[in-house]
Amino acid sequence: MKRFDKSSITIKDVAKRAGVAHSTVSLVMNDREHVSPKLRERILKISNEMGYMPNMVARSLISKKSATVGVVFPENPHFFTITYFLMIIDGIQNACKKYDRALMFFSLDQTKGESYYKISRKWLIDLMIILNVDYTRDISKDIRDLKDNGIAFSLVTKYNGKEKVNSVCVDNLEGVRLALEYLASKGHKRIGFISGSPNSADGPERLDAFKVLSKKMGFDQDEDLIVHGDFTFESGEREVPKLLELKKRPTAIFAASDYMAIGAMRAMKAQGISIPGDMALMGFDNTLEVAYVEPPLTTIRQPLQEMGEKAVDLAVRSMNEENFEPQMAVLKPELIKRQSC
Amino acid sequence: MKRFDKSSITIKDVAKRAGVAHSTVSLVMNDREHVSPKLRERILKISNEMGYMPNMVARSLISKKSATVGVVFPENPHFFTITYFLMIIDGIQNACKKYDRALMFFSLDQTKGESYYKISRKWLIDLMIILNVDYTRDISKDIRDLKDNGIAFSLVTKYNGKEKVNSVCVDNLEGVRLALEYLASKGHKRIGFISGSPNSADGPERLDAFKVLSKKMGFDQDEDLIVHGDFTFESGEREVPKLLELKKRPTAIFAASDYMAIGAMRAMKAQGISIPGDMALMGFDNTLEVAYVEPPLTTIRQPLQEMGEKAVDLAVRSMNEENFEPQMAVLKPELIKRQSC
DNA sequence: GTTAACCTATGAAACGTTTCGATAAATCCA
DNA sequence: TGGATTTATCGAAACGTTTCATAGGTTAAC
Questions:
Q1: Quick check: A152 and A128 in contact, CB under 8 A?
Q2: In B, which residues are within 8 Å of A108 by CB distance?
Q3: Which residues sit opposite B300 in a β-bridge?
Q4: CB contact under 8 A, A58 and B56
Q5: Which residue of A has its CA nearest to B90?
Q6: Which residues of B touch A66 (CB under 8 A)?
Q7: What is the structure's pLDDT at A1?
């Protein structure tokens, strides 16, 4: 096993060259007071000449802060191909730039069930973004550990535990309302719904919203107009035939995620159903792909990038502001009209 | 500014509880020899009870290794929405799991032109993957610094400098050949080409391959059958009209990237051109989106996930094997037949 | 029964920072 | 001018590890 040891320039090297104590150089590097302007100037010049670069790891060890944003993501074989998450991450990366932090990723299956808190301790992550919590797993102890130890974090999902935490989510009721009102305006009153995963925050919320609003708006109320997916493409493709087989077919289908809508679209095409001619189709999320499908999918946009950025903003505030109360940011969805309705 | 200081369990805490020196605990934690089985057992038990977790930062500082893979990515406003890179990253993440390393990202615009080497020193990154080198920037000094200091790295692009380095790329000549032979087999002999960015490795390579092969295969050789894009959607949309305006139109268009092909597709649709009825269209890459466009795009697959994984594999080997010679891995492309030809 | 060889465990030093109390120098005020 | 106050700089300690030379304690060999 090779080692690299040609050591790089440290704060002590700079100090020696400048003929001062290395603690003084440290003060300069951190823009702290109590250093005379001319000495500061001189040290800065020398450190530039020498190409000094602070060692973030040593800094991290002593200060117990890491200058990173740690993103914890759920077990998923091909996480980095799921554009839903990636748009959130794009927002997170934006924020990283703003706060000058590097980005670290931790996959839950890799960390073998280690708690969020343990991950943060292990890597001295002081700012953590938690994506898409699995509701079958009880994370309340974990959340408490994070809070008790003063680690700043946000969830990008709704959190139902009793602890007050930073979280960012979309207004699902409003999103479903936008969709249903739009479909109603197109004359639909018999609407099929493909629900999302019951083990998430969004799945049940959108389902409830659909039930409540479709009743209120006077749509057909048959039990079998609702089928149950899990947000994935495959589940959309699998579930939509149940709607198509109904003696009395819906005139529009609303899927609780874009992936399911695209899956449904494939299944519908396979049966020769024309969209929107024979049947209208709507999705939810506005992920990257949906502008490219044929027909381009009408959907409800979740402001995913904003959500990622906001999650970091909140965590940063709870780190910096003395009496910051953790908060839930509920962002507004938006109707994106394309050609599938 | 709040601080979190409720300190966590360290190796010394475990040592104290076990009544041994902390260096002994260290030996146990690292599975090193020279510890009697029964003591090892006891220490392991105690450390589990106490929930000990090694501090990776301290470990990193002393060992000058970081247990991470650092990915350096090019300046790009929305990097995390570019599926081309993300598929590579998905492969890198796979490898991270395999080698039990965490993933770190460094955006070149954020690091404000810091050299790769400086980034690696700053964060003690000992394994680095460099995505998509900009050929207008001379990185040879940077590359030499990395090599001289024993930092393992791979480029995910072809590297033309004189230093031997790990790199992973696709066989562009073969890819273009697959595309052209397929088009020829469909009876095309007048083929328009949209080239990629001249500041990359792949752009000029695919362009040259097109020129050479299209001559060899006896296709029409008009200068204006070639237009110049930069791999982006917008450039495809912008450039393709030049081909459509030709007095003698091509019967097929081959774009050097999928994004350009999709852009071209939009422009062609806007002019009422039917694909593949009026004109065939091929892309290159097989990014995520192209299966969803209408018609689904026939393209040349780059094995992006494999490339990401291979890049890490090579870097790991050059770190672990005493006399490992850096190598260039040229992966084979593959023809993906869909419905645009 | 002595010496050599080995194995286990130890303690100190090191990694590159930040922080903090102490000291020295400079400035102030009377 | 001298004491008090402020400012500038320093040195040591700490962060949580790994590593390495060394000291005891066993065992093996003669």
A1: yes
A2: none
A3: B284, B335
A4: no
A5: A80
A6: 57
A7: 34
A23-CA/C21-C1' distance, Å: 13
**Residue B98 pLDDT > 50:** yes
Mapped onto helix, strand or coil, the DSSP state of residue A252 is: strand
Average the pLDDT over each of A100-104, A125-129, A168-172, A289-293 and give the range with the smallest value: A289-293
Looking at the complex, report in whole angstroms how far the Cα of residue A103 sits from the nearest Cα belonging to chain B: 5
Are B66 and A60 in contact (CB < 8 Å)?
no
Protein CB footprint (7 Å) on chain C nucleotides:
7-20
CA distance A26 to A44: 11
Nearest nt to A26, CA vs C1'?
Answer: C18
pLDDT of residue A294: 87
Domains of chain A: 11-54 (1.10.260.40), 68-170+305-332 (3.40.50.2300), 172-301 (3.40.50.2300)
Q: Please tell me which residue lies nearest to nucleotide C26, judged from CA to C1'.
A: A36
Which residue among B56, B262, B289 places its CB closest to the CB of A123? B56
| Region A283-312 average pLDDT | 95
Residue B6 has pLDDT above 80, yes or no: no
Which pLDDT does position A181 carry in this prediction?
A: 97
pLDDT tens, position by position, B66-87: 999 999 998 888 999 999 999 9
- With helix as H, strand as E and coil as C, how does chain B read? CCCCCCCCCCHHHHHHHHCCCHHHHHHHHCCCCCCCHHHHHHHHHHHHHHCCCCCHHHHHHHHCCCCEEEEEECCCCCHHHCHHHHHHHHHHHHHHHHHCCEEEEEECCCCCCCCHHHHHHHHCCCEEEEECCCCCCCCHHHHHHHHHCCCEEEEECCCCCCCCCEEEEECHHHHHHHHHHHHHHCCCCCEEEEECCCCCCHHHHHHHHHHHHHHHCCCCCCHHHEEECCCCHHHHHHHHHHHHCCCCCCCEEEECCHHHHHHHHHHHHHCCCCCCCCCEEEEEECCHHHHCCCCCCEEEECCHHHHHHHHHHHHHHHHHCCCCCCCEEEECCEEECCCCC
**What was the pLDDT predicted at A237?**
96
Q: Any idea which nucleotide's C1' is nearest the CA of A64?
A: D15
Over the stretch B137-176, which tens digit does the pLDDT of each residue have?
888 999 999 998 889 999 999 998 889 999 999 999 999 9
Other CB atoms within 10 Å distance of the CB of residue B113: 9
- CA A117 to CA B6: how far, in whole Å? 13
pLDDT of residue B184: 97
The pLDDT assigned to B3 comes to: 37
pLDDT(A243) > 70? yes
Considering only the beta carbons, identify the residue of B3, B55, B81 that sits closest to A288.
Answer: B81
Of A27, A22, A28, A19, which is closest to residue A10 (Cα–Cα)?
A: A22
Q: Which of B79, B114, B289 sits opposite A93 (nearest CB)?
A: B79
Tokens found for residue A280: 């209208």
Mean pLDDT across B301-320: 97
Tell me the chain B residues in contact with residue A78 when contact means C-beta distances shorter than 8 Å.
90
Average pLDDT over residues A87-92: 97
- Test the B interface: residue of A1, A3, A4, A141 with most B CBs within 10 Å: A4
